[in-house]
Amino acid sequence: MATIFFDSEEDMSDMSNNGKGVAYNVQKMEVHRYPLLITRTWFFAIILLFVPFVSMAQFSGGDGSEGDPYSITTPEQLTQLSTFVNENNTDYNSKYYRFDTDIDLSDYGDNFNDGKGWIPIGHNYYCSFKGHFDGNNKTISNLYINNNEYDCTGLFGFINNGTAKNVKMENVNVTGNNNVGVVAGQSTGNISAITLQLPNVSGNDNVGSIAGQSTGSIYNITVLSPNMFGYDNVGGVAGYISNGTLTNAYNAGRVSSSGTGRRGVIGVKTGGITNAANLYFDSTTSNATDANATGITTAQLINGLPTGFTSG
């Protein structure tokens, strides 16, 4: 049975319609208006409550703060970070991130992106990575890039005053144009505690196993069995350094160049380097010299790296 409402204050005397009063149009409007208002209120309240969970759902946990970094546990989540940064999404490009498991990027190899593979996180200055990445001593494997379209090519394209640290990378193949490195094509930030195993890196100018070009700091680096090739400014750790620092780094691999600036650790440095210390390279395998570093033969390395060297 449908309920009919009446205004008891305005029409106490009218008890028609079986004693239920007169159903005025104004009351009908009021009855429908309040539920609509309530519905809209709840709708927006639900949206506001849901927004934080949408952000969290992109990752496995955390809120992106220094005390509670976003947790990355799948390749898809790392890809999502790349998408956010390359869209210059300010909600994500300067947050804190941490690996909580090893990451295999096989699905983003030569069968991805029209054969070009991984899309660098922040592939140029205008959509650069300004955040903080902690690998948490986990391993990234099977990074593959074959793309000459960018001038900043690596896991990260351009690290803009951000950080990348505490990660091991193995079975890596990175090919780009200028500013090519496994960790970052170009960096003005801090890169530390990195171990590379079997990286193959090639490009044109400014090619390095860790960073193609750096004006920031790089330290505690171990590069094992790399194969690097470029035209100019090719270094076992960094291709080109200007007004930056590079300390405690070791390269045990081959460095080749069809031009100039081939060095065991630093391809070329200009503008002064505030600190270049405790740098070593395997003089037997590197096919290079380096005035900024000490060459050690493979035979000498049987007894281990020099005292005081800290690996990635």
Would you kindly provide a written description of the structure presented here, covering whatever features stand out?
The structure is a single chain. The protein has 312 residues and is an alpha/beta fold. It folds into 2 domains: 23-57; 62-298, Pectate Lyase C-like. 17% of the residues lie in helices and 38% in strands. The chain is built from 4 helices and 19 strands. It has helices at residues 16-19, 25-57, 75-86, 298-301; strands spanning 70-72, 96-99, 103-104, 132-141, 144-146, 156-159, 163-175, 184-187, 190-202, 205-208, 211-214, 217-230, 232-235, 238-242, 245-257, 262-263, 266-270, 275-282, 294-296. The strands form 3 sheets. Strands 1, 2, 3, 4, 5, 7, 9, 12, 15, 18 and 19 form an 11-stranded parallel beta sheet that branches. It has a 5-stranded parallel beta sheet with strand order 6-8-11-14-17, with no helix packed on it. The longest helix has 33 residues, at 25-57. The radius of gyration is 30 Å and the shape is globular. The termini are far apart. Residues 1-34 and 42-56 have low confidence and may be disordered.
Over the alpha carbons, how many angstroms does the gyration radius reach?
Answer: 30 Å
Which fold does the CATH topology of the largest domain refer to? Pectate Lyase C-like
**Overall pLDDT confidence:** 82
CATH architecture descriptor text of the largest domain: 3 Solenoid
Shape: globular
What's the total helix number? Answer: 4
What amount of the residues lies in strands? Answer: 35-45%
Structural class: alpha/beta
Q: Give, in order, the helices and strands.
A: HHEHEEEEEEEEEEEEEEEEEEH
Helical percentage: 10-25%
Largest sheet at a glance?
Answer: 11 strands, parallel
Count the domains.
2
- The total of beta strands comes to 19
What's the CATH first level of the largest domain?
Answer: Mainly Beta
